[in-house]
Amino acid sequence: MKIPTMIHLRGYLTLTVRGEHVEAFINSLAKAGIPVWDVTPTGAHSAELKLLLKDFRRLRPLLKRTGCRTRIKERNGYPFRARRLLKRKAFVIGVVMFFAILLALSSMVWNVEVEGNATIASEDVLDAAKQEGLYPFQWIFKLQSMDKLSGNITARLPGASWVGVERNGTRIRIQIVEASMPEKPPLQNPRHLISTRDAVITYIYAEKGVPKVAINSRVKKGDILISGVLGDEENSERIVAKGEVKGLVWHEYDIEIPLVTTHKVYTGEGKKRSYVVFGDRAVQLWGYGKIPFSQQETLTFYDPLTWRSRSLPLGWMTEKIMEVTEVQRSITEEEAKKEGIEGARRDILAKYGANSKFISQKILHDKRENGKVYMKVLFEVEETIAKELPIVYDQGE
Amino acid sequence: MSRISRKLQKWTQEVLDLPQDLLFDLPRLTLVGNKELHIENHRGVRHFSGERLVLSLSEGSLEISGTGLAIQAIQSHEVTIIGTIHHIQYIGMGEKP
């Protein structure tokens, strides 16, 4: 009922008290305020009782006064157990070792992670970190402060504009923000700009290099327009010629346009066939029957079963059979000529650059034969005529 | 205690309806079945064995007899006795208040 708290933690004793005046001893215990419990008489002049370990020393004067003797019968509780365990050396060493190893292992860097690098190799970052004393199995207490580390690693990595070092337990995270570098222009050989075809120069602008032709001069295909060689014959330097040259060029086109054209047109009627495909075999399921169309086109769709972007040799195939009819369209001669010239112009723009300019056009002759219009047209076009020619280093000098 | 003070105490007890153990140092016994007995205001153990236990009170004494008696806890004014209790008897306690 009034047993002290936490007796197991504090340790308690079971005592046997013998003497003429056990009652007096118990009274004096109560007077002195020493808590005892489970007092049981074991004989006429003896009793058993329990008391806390810390009160045992205080018993002596009381025993002397009352003329009783005690014998310890049992020792219970944590202090006694601890003392017994401490006597076993290997056990104690084991406990100490356990905590020592735990402490040692938890005060070690176990892994270093690099994050946020795209162009800098992780190995380079780890190398830089290693030179600053940050690597796996290094003691954490040997590390410099994180601010210092990040500063020093930044200094060692030229491609990084900021490096953050963060410790989370035994894990170090290095975060990198890479400096954005200007794009390097691709390396180019020294070169000339030469003409792609016979032309009359209308515009020349040499950004780099020596212009060799003037406006209104005629050039042949392969002539140097802007030279990539600077200086005279003794002191010369080869550079990458750069610039823009435009010239008048003549293109002759032979054009033939049919006056009547036939087109295939879907009527909208159709039929569907469905197949199941196993490997390279298809089994038709639906759409049996004859095809009632005189002219048709077949469209095939194959839809294999897929599993994670891998197609399986099993699938579904549908065929669409569409009825078509032919429709004829006839145009006048004027329209045919117009169409032909338009087509030729589109061809020129596609072939010689979209910034080509049509200066003039001339129909040299035209005739109508076998339902077609034949034409010969000359186009005068201003277009870019420069082309790069690498300067070979040793031109057989 | 003088007669006057005793009378005064008795008067206050009656007027204020106070429990007697507070005023007269009387023992207060709490008996749980026949297994546990809690006594307040005792004056020490006079005799102690498994069958008989005598506690001295401020006046007279209290004899408890039974089998397997043991003191579960003891303090200077309180004691808890466990065991099988057969008799509780007051010895030498006069009728005079």
| Extended strand count of chain B | 6
Structural class of chain B: alpha+beta
Whole-number average pLDDT of chain A?
A: 87
Summarize model confidence as the mean pLDDT of chain B.
85
The dominant shape of chain B is elongated
**Spatial extent as radius of gyration of chain B:** 15 Å
Helix content of chain A: 10-25%
Structural class of chain A: alpha+beta
| Neighbour order of strands in the largest sheet of chain A | 11-9-15-21-20
CATH class of the domain at 25-91 in chain B: Mainly Beta
Distance between the termini of chain A: 120 Å
Spell the H/E element sequence of chain B. HHEEEEEE
Straight-line N-to-C gap of chain B: 11 Å
Strand content of chain B: over 45%
Helix content of chain B: 10-25%
Question: How many individual helices of chain A?
Answer: 8
What is the domain tally of chain A? 5
Largest interface (CB < 8 Å):
A-B, 21 and 20 residues
Oligomer: heterodimer
Low-confidence stretches of chain B: none
Strand content of chain A: over 45%
Organism (chain B): Paenibacillus solani
Protein name (chain B): Sporulation protein YqfC
Protein name (chain A): Sporulation protein
InterPro entries (chain A): YqfD (IPR010690)
Which SSEs are present, and which pair or pack?
The complex is a heterodimer of chains A (397) and B (97).
Chain A lengths: L6 H4 L1 E7 L3 H11 L3 E8 L2 E7 L6 H8 L2 E8 L1 H9 L2 H18 L4 E5 L6 H10 L14 H11 L3 E9 L2 E8 L12 E5 L3 E10 L1 E2 L6 E2 L4 E4 L1 E3 L4 E3 L3 E17 L1 E19 L2 E6 L9 E12 L2 E21 L2 H20 L4 E13 L2 E13 L1 E5 L7
Parallel strand pairs in A: 5-7
Antiparallel strand pairs in A: 1-3, 1-4, 2-3, 6-7, 8-12, 8-22, 9-11, 9-15, 10-12, 13-14, 15-21, 16-17, 16-19, 18-19, 20-21
Helix pairs in contact in A: 2-3
Chain B lengths: L2 H14 L3 H5 L3 E5 L3 E5 L4 E4 L3 E5 L4 E14 L3 E14 L6
Antiparallel strand pairs in B: 1-2, 2-6, 3-4, 4-5, 5-6
